[in-house]
Design a protein that fits this description.
It is a single chain. This protein has about 475 residues and is α+β, with helices and mostly antiparallel strands. It has eight helices and 27 strands. Strands 17, 20, 23, 24, 25, 26 and 27 form a seven-stranded mixed β-sheet that branches. Strands 1-8-6-3 form a four-stranded antiparallel β-sheet, with no helix packed on it. The protein has a four-stranded antiparallel β-sheet with strand order 5-4-2-7.
Length: about 475
């Protein structure tokens, strides 16, 4: 047999550890290249890990619920299992010790050490065959053969393995989540042109090769695990471990609160016309099958207001001492999940039509509720919406999502007495609260941006006239 070790990869950009939530295999189970073997939770999201080689599971490195450092061996696989492994006969055993690089995203220059003890049952067919050269690779990729061809593997039924490239060659470099994505989209990695450093295939490369809407992929729902509470003997206190998404969120919010000087402004206004438009759009044939709610039109109003006040869509780069003005909008939506608060974002929301934005919002929310939001979906946000109104709250003073200049809190929408056309009437009223980083957003910009959003929602025809 030949034992290969799969180590905990860095699935998020610079993460140092992850918790193993669920194992989908056990010792003795056969696995194939690209098969998901476990689900882990990082400080950003839950991620499924596919194993990068074929074989039989020999050992599980850590039980469920264990927090494991990046680079630690989590599963060992026998890539050359024999039929009489359990007969007690001494067979060839090979152990490889791989020197991992200090940073998971950089290729190590260390030479990998390879130790083998061979006691073959019968002499090999070609004792002069040289062992293929190997070169160090990224964490979780496995070993890449640079000279000799790989022996073709076949499943037990004798048929050719699926998903292989059209011909022999070195195994494409891609992190486990990227391999999983390629498998889901039916993309052959051997024909994908890599754009990452050192010839690494990225998620964008896979999407470009697939040319499909990833939102249409079927998602298998699994229960979202929650950290088990610890109950004291007298049951008067319950302690829940601080880890995963909740721990990362807490650290980010504390850092944001004490780094960026927050200013919060409020506006209360009549949103009745927007609520009427919501009802009209629900019966519009162009919105058939799509979810239409106040959040959709508020999000659209924010995008129009950003177009009128583009400097609100910015970031403060402390290291470079620069203000980064962004001419694209990755619209973040704060979502409360059993794992804690997460903020996935809609990429290039500014370029989406209303039906497209509705679809993106629905997919974002459903994915978050299923606990399937990926780290990539939470990176690169430029401005955030948080809807506290769904909890019956009038307003709040939201804390900035790190790296962003503004966040808008949406309060509850309710009937209130309001002066309308010279008479006091019952109207739908709400309050918006805008927090912004006063280092790069002054009072005039913040006030104008917030007033524009309110003006659009008071008179939603401005969604057309102000574009």
């Amino acid at each position: 047999m030949a034992i290969r070790e799969f180590r905990m990869p860095d699935v998020g950009e610079g993460l140092t550890e992850a918790e193993i939530l669920t194992w989908y295999v056990k010792p003795g189970d056969p696995v194939m290249d690209g098969q998901v073997v476990c689900e882990i939770e990082t400080a950003k999201a839950a991620v499924e890990l596919p194993v990068p080689f074929d074989g039989v599971v020999r050992e599980i490195g850590f039980p469920e619920g264990t927090t494991v450092d990046v680079g630690a061996v989590i599963i060992s696989v026998d890539t050359e299992p024999t039929a009489d492994t359990g007969s007690g006969t001494e067979l060839r055993e090979e152990a490889r010790t791989e020197l991992l690089p200090a940073a998971p995203t950089e290729v190590s220059t260390d030479v990998r050490a390879e130790v083998s003890t061979d006691v073959p049952a019968e002499p090999p067919a070609d004792v002069s065959a040289a062992r293929p050269e190997r070169r160090p690779v990224l964490v979780g990729y496995g070993v890449v053969e640079s000279s000799a061809k790989r022996r073709p593997r076949r499943p037990a039924n004798g048929t050719a393995p699926a998903g292989r490239g059209p011909g022999p060659g070195p195994r494409p470099l891609a992190k486990p989540p990227v391999r999983k994505l390629a498998k889901d989209l039916g993309v052959d990695l051997t024909v994908v042109r890599p754009s990452g450093g050192d010839g690494t295939i990225t998620r964008a490369d896979v999407h470009a090769a697939a040319v499909v809407d990833i939102g249409t992929r079927e998602v298998v729902e699994r229960p979202v695990p929650v950290p088990a509470p610890t109950t004291l003997p007298d049951a008067r206190e319950i302690r829940v471990p601080i880890k995963g998404v909740r721990k990362a969120t807490a650290a980010a919010m504390v850092g944001s609160a004490f780094t960026a000087p927050h200013v919060t402004e409020f506006v209360t206004f009549d949103i009745t016309r927007t609520m009427k438009l919501v009802e009209e759009l629900k019966s519009d044939k162009d919105m058939a099958g799509l979810r239409v709610n106040p959040l959709l039109l508020i999000a659209k109003a924010v995008l129009v207001a950003i177009r009128r006040n583009p400097d609100i869509n910015a970031a403060w780069d402390e290291a470079a001492q620069e203000i980064v003005l962004k001419r694209y909008v990755n619209l973040g939506i704060a979502a409360a999940t059993p794992r804690g608060l997460i903020v996935p974002n809609i990429k290039d929301a500014h370029a989406q039509t209303l039906p497209e934005l509705s679809k993106s919002l629905s997919e974002l929310v459903s994915t978050a509720r299923e606990g399937k939001t990926t780290p990539a979906a939470m990176q690169g946000g430029t401005i955030t919406l948080t809807n506290v109104g769904v909890f019956g709250v009038d307003t709040g003073t939201p804390i900035l999502n790190p790296g962003e200049a503004a966040i808008l809190a949406i309060g509850t929408i309710k009937l209130q007495p309001w002066l309308h056309k010279g008479k006091v009437k019952a109207r739908q009223v709400t309050t918006l609260a805008l927090s912004f980083d006063h280092r790069l957003v002054d009072g005039e910009l913040g006030s104008t941006f917030l007033a524009d959003i309110a003006a659009i929602l008071e008179q939603p025809k401005r969604l057309i006239t102000w574009v």
